[in-house]
């Protein structure tokens, strides 16, 4: 896609700090480095988000994640790593070429705070929702 910044990175029209590349997938350092080593893993083909992704592209992108995550952990001495994938503006997506954020966690005071608001479990509601969402394999 011509006006997509990540397609331009794939094409080499915009520079990036690559840490992994093969014929289908590219991983490069996020320009903002939310935590040290913050990396984006992207498909080389233009796919807007998870809703737009077929299983072949998903297999190639997600299959590379553990290997890249291990490299970040080992080389940076990270104690852990968060994986974030934003889909749609409401979910915080700003670049509409699908990407997976890998966020190495080197220390507790790194400023990253991913928190879930929890609710009391309502088992009746959970049962009904699961029925509604149930997807045949
Ligand atoms: P999103 O908010 O869509 O999940 O994440 C987009 C990410 O892309 C942001 O973390 C932002 O820093 C990163 N980003 C945007 N433009 C560029 C760029 O030109 N180069 C690199 N390396 N990262 C970028
Ligand atoms: Zn693109």
The major sheet is characterized as:
5 strands, antiparallel
Query: N-to-C terminal Cα separation, in Å?
Result: 33 Å
- Walk across the major sheet and give the strand order: 1-2-3-5-4
The rounded Rg comes to: 17 Å
Tell me the series of helices and strands, N- to C-terminal. HEEEHEEH
- Stretches with pLDDT under 50, minimum 5 residues: none
Tell me the CATH superfamily: HIT-like
Shape: globular
How many strand units? Answer: 5
Q: Beta-strand level of the residues, as a percent range? A: 15-25%
Look at the structure and give the mean pLDDT: 97
CATH structural class: Alpha Beta
Q: Which kinds of small molecule does this entry bind, naming each only once?
A: guanosine-5'-monophosphate, zinc ion
Q: How many individual domains?
A: 1
Structure description:
A motif (Histidine triad motif) lies at residues 97-101. One of its GO terms (molecular function) is hydrolase activity. InterPro entries: HINT, Histidine_triad_CS, Histidine_triad_HIT, HIT-like, HIT-like_sf. Residues 5-113 form the HIT domain. By secondary structure, this protein is α+β, with helices and mostly antiparallel strands. The protein has a single domain (5-133), classed as 2-Layer Sandwich (HIT family, subunit A), CATH 3.30.428.10. Helix content is 29%, strand content 18%. The protein has helices at 5-11, 55-76, 123-133, and strands spanning 18-21, 25-29, 39-43, 80-84, 100-105. The longest helix has 22 residues, at 55-76. The model has no long low-confidence stretch (mean pLDDT 97). Bound molecules: guanosine-5'-monophosphate (5GP) and zinc ion. Guanosine-5'-monophosphate is lined by residues 5, 14, 16, 28-32, 86, 92-95.
